[in-house]
Specification:
disordered N terminus, 72% helix, Tetracycline Repressor, domain 2, 205 residues, 0% strand, mainly alpha
């Protein structure tokens, strides 16, 4: 997860590349969470991995929940950038969707689904960062809706309903795959299948 980190929305710099110490903290936190699970990870574990004292860590974050929310925020911040870029590609709707779906998940989903604590981390995210999840998924929906509307206007796809409703269906399906896949290989297979199904269904007849 060396690319999927950031600070809480309410505090800290917007770009972690300008704050190496904070990036070090969050990388340490992700390593600890994926190794020990959220419940068993302590602020001492995170501080030790970041090469600092626990009091120094508290100068940056209130608790491990605050740190976890930072990781979730950055997942969505980076995911929207990757998704928008992937949707600029040329190709059939199936090919574009396949690339976009994998770009949306990024390294975070792979790391989570290969961690023995992946399901715990997913449950933790739903519990302590539900508001960030809702806002982040809405951003994904908007990006897909904008792409679908543009493609429909150009005659590249034929929509069976409002673009935002189709987009919401897509993001809900992706979220369902992420939370039910037994492992990362299964996730990739099912995401590719979804891309084929959705893409084929949008082809003009």
């Amino acid at each position: 997860m060396n690319q999927d980190i950031n600070e809480p929305a309410e505090a800290g710099p917007a770009n972690l590349s300008n704050d190496p110490k904070q990036e070090t903290i969050l990388l340490s936190a992700w390593t600890a969470f994926s190794t020990y699970g959220f419940r068993k990870t302590s602020m001492d574990d995170i501080a030790r991995g970041a090469g600092m004292s626990r009091p120094a860590l508290y100068l940056h974050y209130r608790n491990k929940e605050d740190i976890f929310r930072s990781l979730v925020q950055y997942y969505y911040d980076e995911g929207t950038v990757r998704l928008a870029e992937a949707l600029k590609a040329e190709g059939t709707p199936q090919d574009v969707f396949a690339a976009a779906f994998h770009a949306q998940g990024g390294a975070t989903v792979e790391a989570m689904l290969t961690s023995p604590h992946g399901m715990e981390l997913l449950d933790t995210g739903a519990t302590i960062s539900g508001d960030l999840n809702v806002a982040g998924e809405a951003r994904f929906v908007q990006i897909y809706a904008d792409w679908l509307s543009k493609q429909a206007a150009q005659g590249q796809v034929k929509l069976s309903g409002p673009a935002d409703e189709i987009s919401a269906t897509i993001t809900s399906a992706l979220k369902g795959i992420k939370t039910t896949a037994a492992n990362y290989d299964e996730y990739r297979t099912r995401v590719d299948q979804l891309a084929q199904l959705v893409g084929a269904g949008l082809l003009p007849r």
